[in-house]
Design brief:
- α5 packs across α7, α6 runs antiparallel to α7 and α11 crosses α12.
- Helix content is 55%, strand content 7%.
- It is elongated, with a radius of gyration of 31 Å.
- β2, α2 and β3 form a beta-alpha-beta unit.
- The N and C termini lie far apart (92 Å).
- Strands 3-2-4-1-5 form a five-stranded parallel sheet, sandwiched between helices.
- By secondary structure, it is an alpha/beta fold.
Length: 326
């Protein structure tokens, strides 16, 4: 017998090769290519698997087959290596069957190896979100009729719910609310693709913010330096001013935001610009609130957040009064 020929009763080897649909087909790891070329048989149950054209082009012969666990074990007899390309569903019946055979103790099992051929990069699940949103937009009776204008209120609601989760310190809620805010971005970007005059996609949205971040962080991506948070903020404000070419520090401040937040934002812009602006004369609660908001901003306090804290305390007091009177 040839020394390289395994004995007839050698159990062999099963390799379950997994790939990520979020990575372009054909981009496999070197160990995966070695295993594919070295296997005695390569099987795949899915005739439309996206990897198959690239494997055939590389000279890998793939047989379409859906073996049972016992059939796969038998195919490995004599020390053969059989590689199974996992389908998108994960071949659960096959893996469960192999586990049952191994647990029975009645047969000698081949060596079992799980070999990831491609890995998801950070952010890869965003591709799933884009794909799901595309399908929902095309097939859901409600989602297919939505417009930017109709969805605007939900963006505001989700943003407030995110702020509440942050202020409450609830990590589970934070995770969920971040997803809801992200959904609004992807939903609006999907709607924007259908605009007949100036369409854009989620890739354009992402590309735009990437370009902006790189441009506004020359201390990270360029030759500038920044040793403190104050240096970073100065970089940001200077670069932003060059980009916008605004004629007033008030430009770009959304007037539709809550009043206290609006007053604080105006005060922040005024302070950053080094301007001296007196509080306009006037009477009534509006001017009193304005003066309080300006004072809070000057003291480094977010008046909107401070009022929310006080309002929650008032809510708790209301509930306590309700319980006491029950």
């Amino acid at each position: 017998m040839n020394e390289t020929t395994p004995p007839a009763d050698a159990p062999g080897r099963v390799i379950l090769l997994t790939t990520s649909h979020r990575v372009a087909p054909g981009l496999l790891s070197w160990p995966a290519w070695q295993a594919l070329h070295g296997a005695d048989a390569v099987l795949c149950a899915d005739a439309t698997h996206p990897q198959l054209p690239y494997l055939r082009e590389a000279g890998v012969r793939v047989e379409q087959a859906s073996p049972t666990a016992q059939e796969l074990v038998d195919a490995c007899a004599g020390g053969r290596t059989v590689l199974v390309i996992a389908t998108a569903e994960g071949d659960r019946p096959l893996t469960d069957g192999l586990a049952r055979l191994a647990g029975s103790g009645r047969i000698t099992m081949p060596d079992l190896e799980l070999l990831p051929a491609s890995y998801d990069l950070p952010g890869a699940r965003l591709l799933d979100l884009v794909q799901v949103m595309d399908q929902i937009r095309g097939e859901c009776p409600w989602s297919s009729q939505q417009t930017h204008q109709g969805l605007a209120k939900y963006a505001i609601e989700e943003a407030y719910e995110l702020v509440e989760a942050i202020e409450e310190g609830d990590r589970d809620e934070l995770l969920e609310e971040l997803g809801d805010v992200l959904l609004q971005v992807v939903f609006h970007a999907r709607i924007a693709e259908e605009d007949p005059e100036s369409p854009f996609s989620v890739d354009d949205v992402a590309g735009g913010i990437v370009e902006k971040l790189i441009h506004r962080h020359p201390h990270v991506f360029g030759d500038d330096s920044a040793d403190t948070p104050e240096d970073v903020k100065a970089h940001w404000l200077r670069t932003k001013a060059e980009e916008k070419q605004r004629s007033s520090v008030t430009e770009g401040i959304p007037l539709g935001q809550p009043g206290l937040a609006l007053a604080a934002k105006l005060a922040s812009r005024v302070r950053t610009a080094g301007l001296e602006v007196a509080v306009p004369p006037g009477e009534g609660v509006g001017y009193e609130l304005l003066a309080l908001a300006l004072r809070a901003e000057a003291d480094g306090v977010d008046p909107e957040a401070a009022l929310r804290v006080a309002a929650r305390a008032y809510r708790d007091a209301v509930r306590a009064a309700e319980r006491a009177g029950a």
